[in-house]
Every structure is written in structure tokens, then in C-alpha cells.
Amino acid sequence: MLIWKRNLWVLWIGVFFTSASFSMVIPFLPIFLLQIGVHEHTEVWSGLLFSAAFFAGAIASPFWGRVADKYGRKPLLIRAGLALFVVYTLTAFVTNPYQLLGLRIMQGLLSGFIPGAIALIGTNTPSNKVGYALSMISSASASGGIVGPLLGGGIASLVGNRVAFGSAGMFALISTLLVIFWVTEDNFTPSKEKGSIRNDFKVAASNRSLMLVLALTAITSGSIMTIEPVLPLYIVDLGSSSRHASLLAGIVFSLPGIASVIFAPMWGKWADKVGFQKVLFIGLMGGGIGTIAQIIFSNIWGFSITRFIFGIFFCAVFPALNGLVVRSTPKDFRGRAFGLHQTSNQIGGMIGPIIGGILGGFFPVQTVFVVTGFLLLAATGLAYWKSNELNREQKTKFAPEK
Fold this sequence. Notes:
The chain is mostly helical. It contains 19 helices and no strands.
């Protein structure tokens, strides 16, 4: 098997396990707070736990990007995987919310397995296969996100949340071992540039196409996270007549992920033929229209079908953005570029839930869907308006070698 293909399949499994380990524990943190005796201000603690890792990750990502350009993406993957193993394992033994908060901050500061995998794939894959490879990694993350809550919920119901956290740690360890023994990073030239993170920001600021991608990433990530605080409750409300409303909510919630598993590789192959810019434009437009269309239906079945169609289009967005990062940066800056890309993602992840929570608290829940949809359509307009900058990805100046 060609090295790039082996890397792709090994990292697909690694990203799947890492994504599953993340989704095994994150949805159950509020419940775990009650189990360790937090019965006052539980919502505040829950919000702190969710946002702490995003905030810490936004700060740390540019630093780890610089380290990756100097020492390689494979060492970065190993470090991040071991950090997740330690954090999840220690989480199984916490006795108060301060310990849990500290571990969440540590997770944000030290993790970065999936961005590292994306950077390695983007740098060590033939240029005419980058779109397909990045879409496959996206499908791995989506698959893990679907399976994780089922595993976490099942383990927690059988033997408790602490064992579920420990199991998530073992998943992260498996991912790390796969990287150690079967991932090869051949296409790597260490960056000899002596600089600083501050200088990295200056270099990125001079790259107009990269800055546009970072802006689109922050808007897109923020728009999706805007809807997260209200979506589960809205699904349960639509299916309130069902005896199995909670189970139905879990299934409907996962529909975009299922669509991503099926359709992301197709979008990736098409991106290799027509360019990431066109795929990004279609994905953003379809995602924006699909989000607004979800409020048309007042029954769970119409909502579910619309949400699945939304997932078909939106699963094209993040692989296209990752591909544009690859296309718009030289190889010796790519680790730092993905570090900045992750920072943009984390910033959107922090701001989005705050906006969604405020809107959901003062206005009908449908308002959140409308605002989210218009944010995605605004991102579509920005991508179209700045199409000349994005056209740089058509050039092969910074493309990976075949």
C-alpha cells in the first residue's frame, strides 16, 4: 500500500477513536457534576467546563502549530494523544468541580490530535487526492461523534460515568499507538525560521487568502455552535408525543453526522476536480438555506428529513476550508497555519453558544435557526465576494507534491 494511503486509513481509525472518546464524555459532564456533589450553580459550572477547553485551545493552538513545523506533525499527534489519555483517565478520579475544571483547561492546552492529523494528511498526500483525503478524515470525525455518545451512554448506564471516562482514555491511547507504529511522515522539511508566535500572526496577516479562510472558519464554527444550546430541547419538543422522545432526539441530533459519513468523500473527490472554492460556496449556501428550512416543519419527521439534507451540504464545508489552508500556505508554514485555523475554530466555538443561549432565552427558538442560517449565508456572500483571494488555491505553488 502506498504510504499516503496507509497514513490515511490509520489516521481515519485514529481520528474515529479520538472523536468517539471526546463525544463519550462531553455530553455527560453536566450529569457528572451532580454525581460529584455540585447541586448549586450547576448550569454555571457546566458552562465553565464547556468553554474552558475552547478558550485554552484557542491560546495554545498557535504555539503547537509552530512546534509542529519545527519537529513534525507525527510527534505532535503522539503528544496530543498521550495528553488526552492522561486527562480522560484522571477525570475518572476527580472528586470536586475544581479538579474537573483544571483537567478541562489542561485538555484545551495540550490536545490537538485531529488538527494534527489534518495537517499531516494535507502535507503528505498527493495534490490530486487532498480533497478526498481531507473529506475522509472529516467522515472519521463525524462517525466517532455518532458512535461516542452511544458508547458513553451505554457504559455509563452499566458501570458508571467514571468507567466511561476511563474507557475514553483507552480510546485515546489506542489512537496514539496507531500513530506511533503505522504512520509515516516522509514529506517534512523542518522549519529553520527563528521567530515567534507574534511573527507568525504577521506572516498570516500578509496572506490574504489564508486570512479569509480563518475568518470563514470562525463564522462557520460560531454559527453552528449557536444552535447547539437549543437544538436538543427543540427536538424533544417536536417529538413530545412520542414515548421515546429522548431516544428520538439522539437519533435526529446525529443525522448530519450520518450524512457526513455518506457524502463527505463524494464532496472531496469533486473538490479535487473543480477546486475547494466551488465546493465551499455550495456547502455554505446549502447549509444556510437548510438551517432556515428546518423551522418550516412542526413535526419531527419533516424536521428530520430537512436536517439530513442540511447535513448533506454542510459536510462539504470544513474539508473545503482545510483544503484551502493547504492550498494557500507553503509546507514549512502549514503546521502554524493549521494552528491558527484551530484557534479560529475555537473562537467560534466559544462565541457561538453564548449567542445561541442569549437568543434562546429572550426569543422563540426558531429565531436561533434563522440567525444561524443567515450567518452561514453571510459567510457564503463573503466567500463569493472575496473569490479572487480564494482563487489562489487553484495555483500549485503551495500544493503538496505528487
